[in-house]
Amino acid sequence: MIVEVREADAPPEVTAIYNKLREAYGLPLVNLIWRHFAALDGVLPWAWESVRPALPLLPAARERVVAALSVPSLSMGAEASSLAAAYNRGNLSNLILLTALLRGKQGDAPPPPAGPPVAMLPEPPPLPKLNALPAAVARDVRALGALHGHEGGVIPTLYIHLATWPALLKPLYTSLSPMMATGRIAALRDAALAAASIEAERLRTHLVASPEPPAEALATARDTLRIFTTRVIPEMVPIGLMLETV
User: What is the pLDDT of residues 26-71, one digit of tens each?
Assistant: First the structure.
């Protein structure tokens, strides 16, 4: 499992940035990549300050990425749909913003005007801890994660969160497995990457060149960013959009 600072365990200075992220995204949870940044010396404040000026552009950018994708329905019920909606907002935002962050600031466009406040999505159930799940449920979660074959064995947090309703996990695996095997998810991932790449380029001129964290922490963050922005997040974008359909 990737090192992280969970929301419940965050010290005050980390909680302060987590709260700003929630407000900016209109999202009552903090995604894994940001929780990972919090575990690396100086990375969370660097990343946040770097991307903060571009945040008003995110809602329209998310809509354009979704419009570029055509995903099948994978209805698993209202609870899964509501949870997927929260993860979709986070994953779309992070894919665009963090692709821009990884590429680095380019140009000096004036800050975009502030947009209206982003409506907060409903609070999801508490995120379970993988190692606290019953053994059979944990195996189902790990099986879903293994479908992706991510470097370092990263398990997307959405799968862990869906363990709140254990009966969903096996049917989800049964639905996703053939789409993985036939390359359907890979094709949708590539489409998400292409659309997000265009949006990231639009955002790069609005980034801030913030003071960088220590070299070792920055190198670790960049390595994780590459995995998350090329595999982990863009694969979960179409899967989440499928699940959001009721």
Answer: 999 999 999 999 999 999 999 999 999 999 999 999 999 999 999 9
Spans of all domains in the chain:
7-244
Q: Which of 190, 196, 191, 188 is nearest to 61 (CA)?
A: 196
pLDDT at residue number 236: 97
Q: Which residue has the tokens 């801030």?
A: 208
Radius of gyration of the chain (CA): 17
pTM of the predicted model as reported, rounded to 2 decimal places:
0.94
In sequence order, which ranges of the chain are alpha helices (DSSP H)? 12-25, 32-38, 43-51, 58-67, 78-103, 135-146, 157-162, 169-181, 184-204, 215-227, 233-244
Does residue 99 contact residue 196 with C-beta atoms inside 8 Å? yes
**CA atoms 73, 27, 25, 143: torsion sign:** negative
Residue 143 one-letter amino acid:
A
Separation between Cα atoms, residue 245 and residue 228, nearest integer Å: 24
pLDDT, mean of residues 211-218: 96
Token pair of 211 as six digits: 């003071």
